[in-house]
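Sat 14:20. Reprocessing the chain from the morning session after the first attempt stalled halfway. Input below, unchanged.
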Amino acid sequence: MLLIISGCNEQSPIAGSDLHNDTINASIISSDSVPMLIATSLLNSKPSASYPVDVFLGAAKGYTSTVLLRFTPDNIPDSGTYQIISAQLSLQPKRYAFGDTVSNRLAFDVFSIAKPWTPRATIDTLRQSGFLESNAQGTFDASIALRDTMPEISCDISPTLIKTWFDTKQKKIKDSSLNTESAYAIALVPKPSSNVIRTFSRTKLTLDPATNATLLDEAMIIRVICKKDGASKNDTILVKTAYHGSFTSDPSIQSDKIIVNCGTGVYSGLDISLKQLPAGIAIHGAVLKLTLDSASSVRGNQSRDSILTAQFTDSTSGNLIREFSGWAKNGSDVYEFSVVNALIESLLRNSRVGTLKIFPFIDRDRTRLDRLVFHGPNDPDPKKRPLLRIIYSTRPKP
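Finished this time. Tokens:
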């Protein structure tokens, strides 16, 4: 026991102490004194609308959200002649709203689709000449109040369009080669009078009256009232959706800003150059800070997102994607990526220049249209520019 106590009280070896103090040179370099953050670029993934989240519809603040709906013909009769008495499209709104949430005026037209398309469609698909038929098959223009429980909205659909779907179903049974990729589908296109974009649910919970069980059902349906020739009473047919897709045009303009918008697929690239760092250094820490431009940012009726995601692809490591997260603490306008060491080390291994891609948090599953704008590296106010701080060490020359 005496030997152990004595050993614990011994001084550190002189050689080890000298090695630690004399041969390691720690330094800090920051982008506010050495230019390391060079420029920004505005990028857009032009996503398809196949992701399983809410649907955006409407127009506000320069954004336009259009919806494509394809219905399944499963419930459409495959024989007989029917008179279509009425058809009504029903949608289930949710609480998220973007734009004028006081008047909440939503206005859109319903068009049938003229060209074949698939769930891989993007916003460019909508922009094709002749993609939509010229005549509207229905219209909606009303204010949708924000409530804890949102009631359905509905609009009338032309019986002629539904009669076409009935006829197409029967033709397909007789001729399996018939191309129906543009059939049973409509587009909901916002009108200029709309001043809000609303989210609509793809699915909803319903109660099965036979079993009293809760079921997951479609939230977007067309209720068709029809009468078969020779029948004494009307039939009600529910035509359900097989595919829902929404596409939003983004008015973001790049002027040395960092812009992210999860609802439209817009994200930004931040160009980095580390050419002024010494060779053969060891990285001990690296922090990236972005400052929000609150005046340029816009959001709907949800709280501001406080998390960002950044990715860097290292071509020297088989295009390994390194992902980083940044937080704004306590409602601050400063979003901090506290550990980006891997980014710095990857850049130093290669050409010392590269681009960090900055996204919303895990793309936020595209459940909101909020646009976050951050000051760029050439902002007139140096204090608001992105800040990269690196702690590194070098060994002095012998």
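The radius of gyration is 29 Å.
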